[in-house]
Design goal:
- The complex is a heterotrimer of chains A (about 250), B (about 190) and C (about 240).
- Chain A is mainly beta and about 250 residues long.
- Chain A has a domain of about 35 residues.
- In chain A, about 15% of the residues lie in helices and about 55% in strands.
- Chain A has a 19-stranded mixed β-sheet that branches.
- In chain A, a hairpin with a 4-residue loop joins strand 16 and strand 17.
- Chain A is globular and about 55 Å long.
- The N and C termini of chain A lie far apart (about 70 Å).
- Chain C folds into two domains: about 50 residues, no CATH class; about 140 residues, no CATH class.
- In chain C, helix 3 packs across helix 4, helix 5 packs across helix 9 and helix 10 packs antiparallel against helix 11.
- Chain C is elongated and about 85 Å long.
Chain lengths: ~250, ~190, ~240
């Protein structure tokens, strides 16, 4: 027994010494199980990206190059990933490309696009983050759970919808533009410049859930015991429709 | 199953279309009843996917409702609706990035030239199930031309116009589609 | 010409679109070459089968459900048919959104006539209102109930709800068929989110039970039902 104790101590101390190496090994093994694919495409005259994912994150940001770069990190190495360049823009459809397959895990996309790009992004579950894009259209749709974060956005048409998760929009509304935000359960936050002008139709489950902040004025009309607010803010030229089934709607001034 | 639309309908399609254009929803529903199978079948044959075919058939009837006022009866209603359907399917292909002039991702499928004196796998008697299965394995470009020419009965000139390809391409794709189908049907007959 | 060249011409030969010289030449080759004759026989069989079965159509898996989907979409988009729209409107946009995005085009005489018509309607309504107010009148609620319980398309709310429910049942069946293929995480996420939408449907229904004239709840109900169909449709394709 006296022989056993020192050996155990030695083993414990060697284990502690080797622990960081084990950790590095575990992390690198799991990382190597993933597959990362990166592709670059020349951007056409009207840059448009249509991306339909099954699950995983989609992160899009603008860059100075006239190219679209897609980096996909796939949990399952056998996932079919076939970007197609068409007259309508670059199309990536993980759902259609992997129909009837059971082994499709998360695919996490990191996309870099020219600033003027139109984006049509959709995922069955997972977060969508878009920053500093100023194209004609921005559509971000999460069928189930996932936050949508859109910042530095200036587009004539923006549609953001999810079922569970927050929606955050930080940008500007173009005169005559159309903006729709819809969530089932989550907070919808709009951060806008003080001089922003729009016609608003905002609907939430209770009056206290719509917080207009500094954008409130007496000209706005309340309907259905305050569950809906309708009216013009500023020149009222953009059309903004917000619906939240269970969560809050917040307006913040930039 | 044969559709009953040819069995002397009480009201002509043109009359129904006019009534539907004036907002008569029952007339529009009657048109749906008469033609939904034709529309759905064409979508199904071209896409080979039940869900996509249903979605496309839905879109065709929505488009039909929107455009029905522009039907002047110069051509048969079925021809007009047929064109609307083909356009909808082609738009869907384009949206999905399917290039009809290119038949596979790798390019053209080579035609297998049959040489020698004997072919051990005789082609079975063509039946619906086997043919459908084989058509399903054709690349979209071949499938479209084959469906439009051999199943739907269009001329090459019309197909070329619809698909935006040359008559020569339409003819060559049809031949390649038929040869490929022959090979696929023979393969199905292969003893395992 | 070798067999390869002859086989290239076989489709045109079968379709009768070859020049007579080529036609005769290929005919002569076919009578001498068993292999090419076999290919021609096979292609002929395919083409003949298709010709003979032309006009046979597949049945839509659920004809009625497809009609309901179409009908619902038409009703939802009915307002936008009368005039062109300046902006593209999403399928599930609400009535207010559609109304506000409509572009109106009127000539000067049309505009003048409309203004006169509006003036007449307003004065008649005011007169009737004043008379009723003076005589104690009948309940305004009774009149408005006729407006709010009958949706814009002329169908009572209950009927629309029933029709939507049929569409939902159809897509639900499709989802059930595929569900076994999804991984457990996907199944759990789907169920959880479907419950969120169902909660919104139930909330609006209970509001409408308390106040059948509640326009906001009616719209939320429509939106939630549309979202439910959309969610089911999106997952039916997986």
């Amino acid at each position: 027994m006296s022989f056993f104790l020192p050996v155990t101590r030695n083993r414990v101390s060697s284990f502690i010494t080797l622990l960081p190496f084990f950790l590095v090994l575990i992390v690198s093994t799991s990382a190597s199980a993933q597959q990362r694919v990166s592709r670059q495409f020349p951007a056409g005259k009207n840059v448009r990206l249509e991306l339909k994912n099954l699950s995983g994150t989609i992160t899009v940001e603008s860059w100075a190059r006239d190219e679209i770069k897609i980096t996909a990190t796939m949990e399952a190495p056998a996932v079919h990933f076939n970007p197609r360049q068409t007259d309508l823009g670059l199309i990536i459809d993980i759902v259609a490309d992997n129909r009837d397959r059971r082994d499709v895990g998360d695919v996490n996309f990191k996309v870099q696009v020219p600033i003027r790009s139109s984006l049509d992004l959709e995922t069955r579950s997972g977060q969508i983050t878009v920053s500093n894009v100023q194209g004609e259209l921005l559509r971000a749709h999460v069928s189930t759970s996932g936050d949508i974060t859109l910042s530095g956005i200036s587009a004539a048409r923006v549609f953001a919808s999810n079922t569970t998760g927050n929606i955050y929009f930080d940008g500007d509304f173009a005169s005559g533009g159309t903006y729709e935000f819809k969530s089932g359960r989550g907070t919808i936050t709009l951060r806008l410049p003080a001089n922003c002008g729009f016609h608003l139709v905002a609907t939430a489950p209770a009056a206290e859930k719509i917080k207009m902040g500094e954008f409130w004025h007496s000209g706005l009309k309340k309907m259905g015991e305050g569950r809906r607010i309708i009216g013009d803010v500023g020149d009222g030229r953009a059309s903004v429709t917000i619906m939240n089934y269970q969560g809050d709607i917040h307006f913040l001034r930039r | 199953m044969a559709e009953s639309e040819t069995e002397t309908p009480r009201t002509s399609d043109y009359e129904l279309a006019q009534r539907a254009a004036e907002g008569d929803r029952t007339a529009f529903e009657e048109l749906y009843q008469r033609h939904n199978r034709r529309v759905y079948s064409l979508c199904l044959r071209m896409t080979q996917n039940v869900t996509e075919a249903e979605d496309l058939a839905q879109e065709v009837f929505i488009q039909l409702f929107r455009k029905i006022g522009s039907f002047r009866g110069e051509s048969a209603f079925t021809t007009w609706l047929h064109r609307l359907t083909v356009n909808q399917v082609l738009m869907h292909f384009r949206k999905r990035g399917v290039r009809l002039e290119q038949t596979t991702e790798e390019g053209e499928v080579p035609v297998q030239i049959v040489k020698g004196t004997e072919n051990p796998n005789a082609m079975p008697v063509v039946d619906r199930i086997a043919l459908d299965k084989a058509i399903g394995q054709l690349p979209p470009g071949y499938r479209s031309v084959f469906t439009l020419h051999d199943i739907e009965g269009h001329e090459h000139e019309e197909i070329a116009r619809m698909l935006g390809v040359s008559v020569g391409t339409s003819k060559s794709q049809l031949h390649k589609a038929r040869m490929k189908l022959r090979g696929l049907l023979r393969q199905q007959n292969k003893p395992k | 010409m070798n067999c390869e060249k002859y086989q290239d011409l076989l489709s045109d030969f079968i379709d009768g679109s070859l020049a007579s010289q080529d036609h005769h030449s290929i005919e002569a080759h076919l009578s001498a070459c068993g292999v090419c004759a076999e290919v021609r026989g096979d292609l002929d069989a395919i083409v003949t089968y298709c010709h003979e079965h032309r006009g046979e159509y597949d049945a839509v898996p659920n004809e009625r459900a497809l009609w309901l989907r179409i009908s619902n979409l038409i009703e939802a988009g009915d307002l936008e048919l009368a005039t062109d729209l300046r902006t593209e409107i999403p399928q599930n946009a609400g009535w207010w959104f559609r109304l506000m995005n409509r572009s109106w085009q009127m000539s000067l005489p049309q505009l003048a006539a409309s203004m006169i018509a509006v003036a007449i309607i307003v004065s008649v309504a005011t007169m009737i209102g004043l008379r009723r107010f003076g005589s104690g009148g009948e309940s305004a609620g009774l009149r408005s109930s006729g407006v709010t319980t009958v949706a814009a398309n002329g169908l009572p709310l209950a009927e629309r709800y029933r029709q939507q429910q049929q569409t939902i049942d159809y897509w639900n069946q499709r989802v059930e068929l595929n569900k076994a293929r999804w991984n457990p995480q996907m199944r759990e996420t789907f169920e959880r989110n479907l419950n969120v939408i169902d909660a919104a449907v139930n909330d609006s229904l209970s509001h409408l039970n308390q106040n059948p004239h509640d326009e906001v709840s009616e719209e939320v109900l429509n939106a939630a039902l549309n979202d439910k169909v959309e969610l089911l449709r999106e997952f039916a394709e997986l």
